[in-house]
Design a protein that fits this description.
It comes from Bradyrhizobium vignae. By secondary structure, this protein is of the alpha+beta class. It contains eleven helices and nine strands.
């Protein structure tokens, strides 16, 4: 599959490429990750000025109406440059939940702050024993006046240390794993009773363990519909993560091919060894297959029926392809492949993180089979 981009989409892609080429090379990225805050507000403002934070939102919501294909274009380029800024968490996850589930008042209150880059969001749904199950929620929420009061803990909340607001899943009724009893809430990250312990992840991002003790929040969407909203959000997030992974795969292939043309062993370049040529062909094929799946998923993101199955199929196939390419790239670069000064190891770490976000490849193979059997 080869998408023929419109003039506007080509302009978006070239604009992102130019910005990242000029301002976000590997050394600039290393400095950002090593900084105290762990991301660049200057770059985040540049993304907003370029319209990247507005691109996926509909025009009715104050965006540019680019939809899933604009997200794919942006995340693909972000994957090529290992961008750490929280586009996925703020725009793809939180922003889309607000747009699809929020009241008109909530959309007017929250989306403009995302679009102009003034507010950062994070999604807090994982708990220590929940793994990939949206319904396995022990955090509770009870109604108190017009608001709700939340108590519980969330783990591994990506981008929470940077966030101004959180979307938190909490149980409003039912027992553990009761799908009908989970709701979503908007919580101010600096609210009284909210404790946040931040840490650095393996791929250079920031995450947090969050404790909520009688924290006030406002309902997002309808009560008891949280799992369905999160599942739809997962499909959108998977499409974005697949695009990011494909961008990383392409860069690993290019770096490995270039290295094979210069690294000499036994008096000749390693690229002349037939066994390594075969391996790099396999890497190229894996990239092309992943690229086609990425495009197919993004094109069908708004199709409705069968989308979750397609998302799981893409997540598993691209996940395995990305791991294969990352493993080969590290091995073919030898010991230098895992040094901090060289970018290959950083791509390897990011791919490893992508592979476990919203379900690892093995989880999605099983989910695909279950959805296929139920179809």
């Amino acid at each position: 599959m080869d998408i023929q981009f419109t003039e506007e989409q080509e302009l978006l892609r070239s604009s992102v490429q130019r910005l990242l080429r000029d301002q976000y090379d590997f050394e600039a990225r290393r400095k950002i990750v090593a900084s105290e805050e762990g991301f660049s507000r200057t770059q985040w403002e540049a993304f907003a000025e370029l319209g990247l934070l507005a691109a996926p939102f509909s025009e009715n919501a104050g965006g540019l109406g680019g939809g899933p294909l604009s997200t794919m274009i942006i995340m693909h380029e972000f994957g090529r440059h290992l961008v750490v800024e929280p586009f996925l968490e703020t725009v793809v996850l939180a922003g889309s939940l607000i747009e699809h589930a929020g009241t008109p008042e909530q959309q007017q209150a929250f989306i403009p702050g995302i679009v102009d880059g003034n507010k950062i969001w994070a999604l807090a749904w994982t708990e220590k024993v929940s793994r990939f199950d949206f319904a396995d929620v022990t955090t509770t929420a009870r109604r108190e006046g017009n608001d709700y009061v939340l108590s519980g803990t969330k783990t591994m909340v990506i981008a929470a240390p940077w966030a101004d607001y959180l979307i938190v899943s909490a149980r409003t009724s039912g027992d553990d794993r009761d799908r009908a009893g989970v709701s979503l809430f908007v919580v101010d990250r600096r609210a009284a009773g909210l404790d946040l312990q931040s840490f650095k992840t393996i791929d250079g991002r920031r995450a947090a363990e969050i404790s909520l003790r009688e924290v006030r929040g406002q309902l997002l969407g309808r009560e008891g519909k949280g799992v369905a909203l999160l599942e739809a959000g997962r499909d959108r997030a998977i499409a974005a993560l697949c695009a990011e992974a494909v961008g990383a795969i392409g860069e690993l292939n290019s770096a490995t091919l270039d290295y094979s043309k210069t690294r000499k062993q036994f008096g000749t370049t390693i690229g002349s060894f037939q066994v390594l040529q075969h391996r790099m062909v396999d890497m190229f094929i894996a990239h092309q297959e992943a690229l086609s799946l990425m495009q197919h998923l993004s094109l069908n993101l708004s199709a409705g029926d069968g989308l979750s199955r397609l998302a799981s199929g893409a997540k598993s196939k691209i996940g395995y392809a990305a791991k294969f390419v990352a493993d080969q790239a590290v091995q073919l670069h030898g010991g230098m492949g895992m040094t901090d000064e060289f970018n290959v190891g950083h791509y390897f770490k990011r791919i490893s993180s992508i592979n476990i976000q919203f379900g690892d490849p093995a989880f999605h193979v099983l989910r695909y089979a279950q959805l296929d059997a139920a179809a």
